[in-house]
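Let's study a protein:

===
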Amino acid sequence: MWMDEIRQRNDNMVQNAWYLAKESWNWDKRILLFLGITTLTGIALPVFGIYLPKVAVDLLLQRADAMRVLQVLGSMVGCMLILQGVHGDLSKRAYLHHNGCRNTFFIQRLFLVSLQCKYSYTEDSEFYKLYRRAINAVRSGDASGPSVFFDQIPRLVTGVACFFLYSGILARLHILVILLLLLTSLVTYFFRHRENICYERTRDAYAVAEKRLYYTIGGCRNSRTGKDVRVYSMKNWLIGQIQRFQGEEREILKIRRRKGYETHLVGCGLNFLRDGFAYAYLIVQTLQGKIGVGDFMLFFGAITGFSAWITGLVDQMSMLKTANVKMNDLRSFLDIPAEDADSGECELQNVSEGVEIAFEHVSFAYPGSDKEVISDLSFHIRKGEHVALVGLNGAGKSTLLKLMMGMYEPSGGKILLNGTDITKLRKRDIYRLYSAVFQETMILPAMIDENIALKPKRDLDRKRVEQMLSLAGLDEDFAQRNITLDSYMTDRLVEDGIYLSGGQEQKFLLARALYKDAPVLLLDEPTAALDPLAEQEVYESYQKLCQNRTALFISHRLASTQFSDWIMFLQDGRIIEQGSHQELLEKGGEYAKLYELQSYYYNQAEDAQMREEAGYAGE
């Protein structure tokens, strides 16, 4: 595992509440101010509510004059109305502000962690699991971890304050009444706790089922897979898969709901017994003359309020326990350290003159695996050389590329850039050395110029963008289609977004690589989806535009090799042959066999394409 050093947090509610308070204070100080005031008004309102009926009855029994009744009750009701207005207004304000904190601050931080962490982490399944949990922790609406804390902690503080207030009032009654109220509350809490344990135990299973479901749904929506779905009549199979994964989710939710129903039924039954006994006790005490009518109203309100507050405290603790799990999930992902891109023992020298790359007995194995993907690999690429790295799928070509870019660290041997050990250089300096075109194309739903420069408009050079598109051979194609630098790409954000053909897309990516103007160009299977003629055209463009740059062409197809100064043939993580194209053909080894085989099929493909074009011309 890449992420063995990353631990799952297990902080308690106080620690997470303190963390949230500090973060919200840094984000928007008004959140804590509003919550503090609403907590105080939340405590004051029940006090007025419980004493108002007693005061009113006592005034009536004392035959107080109407003016005094109006003064006392009017003052109390006026205070209550003011408190309710302040409480309601600030509660809404606090809700809006802490939701802004959740939806903006924490979402941004999750995004930044995924961008700034070590690349190796992103290829670990544990990273994705932590990410899904963290996203669920902040994207569950009012059930999100931060939202529950912001909402329930003020209510919990209010509930505790009212618990002691009502306990002081009810202390004048028989101790058995208090014990009964507390005992029933403890039983309710026990069932709530069982419900929380059930949630925690099913959390990972639910995350897996959710991942499978959304992956399948996302694949069905993807326009690239739409053709296969229709041609191969995959609809019923995919619907079956979706129903299967939905069924897995439903089974987990069914288990959770069952525990929730049990808790609800027990709570209702205990509330009925508790309140019924307490009210019967008060009626008997009143009929026996042990308490007055005013005190009856006070105790009646206190018991009702006490029961409600106890139930509320149990519910709040239950919700906070569930939210605490989510807060730990959120913080566990946020704890993933950013890659230290600025530390290094020395600077890379003479970059302006070019870059030499040397592997000295480099080996590499993925953590948790005994099999070496790269094994005792040594080679030397001189400044300005164009080298082809070829081999069948699974030979270790892409892994070698990631090692060269510093995304992985070798488990043995050294990688030298201009004679300096790559582990002693700053990551930021290493990344600046390379322009790359990877297998997985990245076209953003942004404008043409932003996609080339990979920068916002205010920071890019539009003239340079135009020059690079022209060098890549796209200026005429774009002019014919009325595509400008301000045209949007893809239809994810706009309906009329543009798409490029396979060959145009590769030229576009080349223009992007040229815009960066790095001394080393890396091409990882850039033409895998192109036909032979389009592939030939793309490589001719690469060769022409890569002058004075060190370039590494990686492919399992051999069209790139004729444009290279020399070739490495990789097999099972080792170089089994190297030399120029002609030297390797004369040697008659694995390279020559593969070249002969591919040339046969390439010639057939070219002949077929020429016949097809001739047929169209005849028509």
About this structure: The first strand starts at residue 357 and ends at 364.
